[in-house]
Amino acid sequence: xxxxxxxxxxxxGSHMAANLAKAGxxxxxxxxVPAAVEKAAANGCKGCASIQEVAENNDVIITMLPNSPxxxxxxLGAGGVLEFAKKDTLxxxxxxxxxAASAEMQKACAEKGVRMIDAPVSGGEPKAxxxxxxxxxxxxxxxxxxxxxxxxxxxxxxxxxxxxxxxNTCKLTNQIIVAVNxxxxxxxxxxxxxxxxxxxxxxxxxxxxxxxxxxxxxKAPMMLDGNFKPGFKIDLHIKDLGNALxxxxxxxxxxxxxxxxxxxxxxxxxxxxxxxxxxxxxxYYEKLTGSEVRR
Length: 295
Ligand SMILES: NC(=O)c1ccc[n+]([C@@H]2O[C@H](COP(=O)([O-])OP(=O)(O)OC[C@H]3O[C@@H](n4cnc5c(N)ncnc54)[C@H](O)[C@@H]3O)[C@@H](O)[C@H]2O)c1
Hints:
Blueprint: E1 3-7, H1 11-22, E2 26-30, H2 34-42, E3 46-47, H3 51-57, E4 60-63, H4 68-76, H5 81-84, E5 90-93, H6 99-111, E6 115-118, E7 121-122, H7 124-130, E8 133-138, H8 141-154, E9 155-162, H9 166-194, H10 199-206, H11 214-225, H12 234-251, H13 256-270, H14 281-289
Parallel strand pairs: 1-2, 1-4, 2-3, 4-5, 5-6, 8-9
Antiparallel strand pairs: 7-8
Helix pairs in contact: 1-7, 4-6, 9-11, 9-12, 9-14, 12-13
């Protein structure tokens, strides 16, 4: 049976590891939270007690962790992957992190003869569960080709975007476009409401035109219902926009719209709404105006 290591068994990683096990791989699974390892074992994975156990026994190791510091700790830290990995191991980091962190880790890995690619995903928990994630990859072509069999199990598309870090650059691009779109949608619907037009009728009138989008179709109904159950949490989007802004500073790229939406999200977080869906950006406008946009 073909083996693969998997570190980080949270909302996304638990499903991805389970899908690999279902596809016939022996998945050596580890998380810092023992209950997550137990759940993975119940889903057909081989529960591991340490990163060492995963790294010593696998030639391919997938990581799915919250942010750059967590991946650095797992890959470069004491007791981490690089301490125990065999030469020529391939580390496939599927977390959404800063592109510069991916490049830094790949360099450290290369010094020890270990290969690394970044492969963040889009699609959220439902697509992690049914194995239809969109996977954005940065790294060497031959490493991408080697990882493709795993991507085929976890996702419905995997695109090699460019060198190491490019997968995360692609993901940040996606996150900027989504965040700014949601804010524009909230702003527009609030104007409709306050100017006396029915926001639901406005949505129906414009969704087929140039302003129409996947974001509009997914998020306008949530806004009109006042349903801000995640979905994708404001806290996670703040993490991604933070990485986008850092990347902007690092490359001398102005990101005025990203910075503005980041401030809106920070207001909502300070107001206790960090766990809401990002369609909750509407609440920012409701706070500003005292008006509510509802069906
Ligand atoms: N949730 C989503 O909808 C979604 C969608 C697309 C991308 N993502 C991205 O995927 C990544 C993972 O997201 P998630 O929702 O699964 O997060 P999560 O917080 O549910 O899972 C992360 C897991 O990593 C584990 N972990 C943290 N530090 C560790 C360490 N040192 N060693 C071992 N395990 C450790 C945690 O215990 C947790 O189980 C994030 O970068 C996120 O931005 C999430």
